[in-house]
Amino acid sequence: MRWEAAVAVVGRGPAGLAAATFLTAAHIPVVVVADGRGTLELWSGEWHFLSREGLEPVSDPYAVWEHRPPHPQVRWSRDAWGVWWGRLLDAWRAAGIPVPERVPSRNCWTLGSAGVPRPTFVAAGWQYQTQELEPLWLVGFSGLSDSLVDWQAAEYEAACGRDAGVSVWEPPAELQREGSPLRWAAYFDRHGVEDLAADLRRALPAESRGRPLVLPQVMGFRHTEALLDELQRRLDRPVAELPLGVPCLGGWRWQQRWESWLTDQGVGWIQGRVVQIGDGRIVLDDGRTWRPAGVILATGGVLGGGIAVGVDGQAVNTATGDPLGMALTAEDLEAVGLPARGAGYATAGRSLAGCQPDREGDGGAMNVWSAAQAVAWWRGGAGSGS
Amino acid sequence: MKSASLDWADTDQCLKCNICTAECPVYRVDAAFPGPKALGPDWYRRMQAGRTETHPHVSDCTFCQLCEAACPADVPVAHLIAWHKSRAGEPWTRRLRDLVLTHPHWVARWPRLMAVPRPVARGLGISTRSVRPSAGPSTPPARRHVAAAPRRVGLLVDCYSRAFDRETVAAAEALLGLWGLAVIPVPGDSQCCGAAAYAGGQPETAKRVAGAMERSLGALSPEAETLVTLNATCDATIREEWPRYLGLRSGRNVVPFTEMALEAAPPSFWETCRRAPVEKVWVHTTCRSRVARGEGALQQLAQEGGGAPRSLGLACCGAGGSYAFKAEHEAVAHDLGSVPTGIDPGAVLLTDSGTCALHLGQLQAVRARHPAWWLYRRYRQGSA
Hints:
- The complex is a heterodimer of chains A (386) and B (384).
- Chain A is of the alpha/beta class.
- Chain A is built from twelve helices and 22 strands.
- A five-stranded parallel β-sheet of chain A has the order 14-2-1-18-22, with helices on one face. A four-stranded parallel β-sheet of chain A has the order 11-10-12-13, sandwiched between helices.
- In chain B, helix 3 (36-48) packs across helix 5 (77-88) and helix 15 (267-275) packs across helix 20.
- Chain B is globular.
- The termini of chain B are far apart.
- Strand 14 (268-271) of chain A pairs antiparallel with strand 6 of chain B.
């Protein structure tokens, strides 16, 4: 094995991939070690900076982080946030993920799977997003599960007071039998959007003209942008997707492109479960053992099995919610099956520092910050955010 | 890699997240295939409740194991599906064909078994669209370079390479010798690791044929602690299915050729390879290799050897060992292997499975070769 010179990032969720990206940008060899797929497929593929303060949506997340940081440990200037978000955006664009060229200066609006508008910071171009909430036209697909378009339109109108019109597409019979978004996406990849565009041209009423068209997030695994461009051209209006439930196509596409790009940058991927970190070694459950240049644990494990480690050293078993005590001692790590005898390592993940990202809508920011901290720690810096 | 085994009755861990289904390449192209969750853990629950029906399309699974690798809850999804297959059985019309395909070492001994004429093939249920293997060029004389006190390694000559890709075997022997290793090719005659039978839902056959190989490996010199493999499926089967599901053990440290190259080849070797002009190569890490080991070693080998590697980006090519040779699977196998990848026609594609190379060579119109073949060619070009 040739991974001795590389920093081992354990975990391939958003925090692990962000850490791998920052290391790669710094020309530090990386190998990602993971047992499963990570959690990107749980999300539609968007990154939150800070979406809410209490129940109120946030428009300028920089200002809140600067003046009223939701986590006192996280003290980055506007410029520091810009630098690290910028590094990720550069990598994502290089990977072919359609994200903005410049780091946004404020949140925009996107839609959740229920049709309710919510703030977000970075979303891929395939997903509906707007600076100002506006009248929309929602298209439902008959037979597709989660394409509950009347309900989504009603939720949208109730939440923001803008009108949402509705059309329902009746697909070919072979597709109508398929409830699963995965099958629909495969269908569009293979057959294109010829039928859909022709039917919508006929069916969309005059009042829909000039409004963005929002479709369920099933527009292909691989050819999404080409399919949406084709629809946009044929229908002569903006066309974008509304994310559905898990597994999310947007997150799937994001992960494929991101990992494929990292692979072509020389990042290695080791499939296996880490059973021991200690004495400068990593040991996997199949016996593979090596001495990495450093270790970054990104095992925050939303899907369970991981540990969330706070910057104060408190660890929580994310599967059970049980507190595990101080995580930075060998005994405590052994208690969760991850012996770390005297090992030096850094941690990354959205659940660090007591963050509850599902409440505050800042999981993306916490991934960026903690991955940057871990990389800075490894490089011997003081985690100054530069 | 999962630590779970099929002793799973008390710890039915499926979260129903369906990430396995999102990762399943077959589910996307095969409308009759209900996906790994339905055929693995869901079927298992029904069976526990006393329902014995099997799904008519369970055999459409290629046994790529990507579902199992993706599972966040350690459910042995692919192995549950293999169990499901074993309960389903095959129609009697396929039995002769499957008898041959679950014993690929017979094909290696008598390669003409794969050369049956089209009408006969059709009658037996053998695909007439998938290219079948034929013996390649004769073996070039391998230059032997053995150090004075060499470390001994076994080289597992799998049935496909033995019958249809002697060039790769010769290249691997020559390279290992160049790196100061004494190579012992094993087994002495054509044998099978059991992968084809296991993936086809015949675990008892798998155990029997693999047991014969296990005995052969037992006769290998005890000094040869390491067994180098040329085929990702044999590699994973011997290291993982053998101890966990077939009750066998190789007693060796089983290492894929690519990893062995990165470990054993000295810097001077790579320098020689890099003297040849930089060559654009494409890389396909097979599904079985990705699941068992990960990804990136093949890219690293290509890079070190003076190639400019690019990943093909295919999850499972659909070859599935003997899967693409079965008439009922040819449509799925061809859909999986012909996904547009942007690869240039005629390009060199490196992959460490003979059947995947054959399949991708046909469907992507490329020269798909084993990394050992490519590396030896680079070395000879660099030393010329």
